[in-house]
Specification:
Layout: H1 12-19, H2 23-30, H3 38-50, E1 66-71, H4 78-92, E2 96-101, H5 109-118, E3 123-127, H6 139-146, E4 151-154, E5 165-168, H7 170-183, E6 189-193, H8 199-216, H9 220-224, E7 227-229, H10 234-246, E8 251-254, H11 257-269, E9 279-284, E10 297-300, H12 303-318, E11 332-334, E12 348-351, E13 354-356
Helix pairs in contact: 1-2, 1-3, 4-12, 7-8, 10-11
Length: 366
Amino acid sequence: MTLPTPRPTPRLADIAAQARVSEATASRVLNGKAGVAATTRHRVLAALDVLGYERPVRLQRRSAGLVGLVIPELTNPIFPAFAQIIEQSLAGHGYTPVLCTQMPGGATEDELVEQLEERGVTGIVFLSGLHADTAADPSRYTRLTSRGVPYVLINGYNDRIDAPFVSPDDRAAARMAVRHLAELGHTRIGLAVGPARYVPSRRKAEGFAAALEESFGLSRGQAERRIRHTLFSVEGGHAAATALIDDGCTGLVCGSDLMALGAVRAARQRGLDVPAHLSVVGFDDSPLIAFTDPPLTTVRQPVQAMATAAVGALIEEIQGNPAIQGNPVRDSVRDSVRDPLRPARRTEFVFQPELVVRGSTGPVRA
């Protein structure tokens, strides 16, 4: 009979080193003593997990409640990136995250929400959900509010929904990308972006058109002829890029990193080199995107800040302190449209993106 190997006894020095705290501080946390900041306590507990040690029974606290995270898919690497940070942040606040992923032929957003409600969730985080689709009925969220379930919405502002929103500045992202390509000498620049009914797509298209007017004096109609709406996928980027290359574009702005990879593939199928013949800019700065061939120039979505802000706003909602207009905790805020017959809507927290220049963009060829 083989007995199970006992788990190793935690060494205080190892835990303290992993958590980057003193041994005295680590000892206070492990013995459940007061006087330690919450962030420090979380680092010590995380060190236990990373080193493979089991937490002492006295430190196994009860969950403050379940919080659902509803996301569209896991195939696009930006969504797991958001999910990881949101789950970490929720755990730091004592909540147990429940990941709910949609997929073709699987449960719909409404069905996932119903299942979460049946399990008595304390709140819900929606990432790029139906709130971002201008063709979808927003009353599903009104009903959720009437049932007393707090929630926060990421990526896709909708002034018909009374809830906290967290968004990147999509218009600024498109302008950054266009200006970068213009500085490299590109004058025929196209935009490959998702379906027009989605708020992020519309905002990127608006920013793109404004940038073409600023840089080249093109009218809105002329700019729209440089825009191809398709799917937020490699295949969608490939199709849009093919059409824009046929139109003579030498620089492409893409609505996601996956679309940008599709654009690179389309160029290579035409025998074109990136960036010698075609410069490509993505959006998101997804994990591992710096290691593509060539490394992708992209506009970084501030995932860490956005995810943390979303959890913070949800905690405020749960505690009965809604993130109303005037809350100072944000990078910038776009006030939502006010209906005089309704109370003030929640704030939209708008975070500034960052252009990350790598190897997929270069000077236009003479």
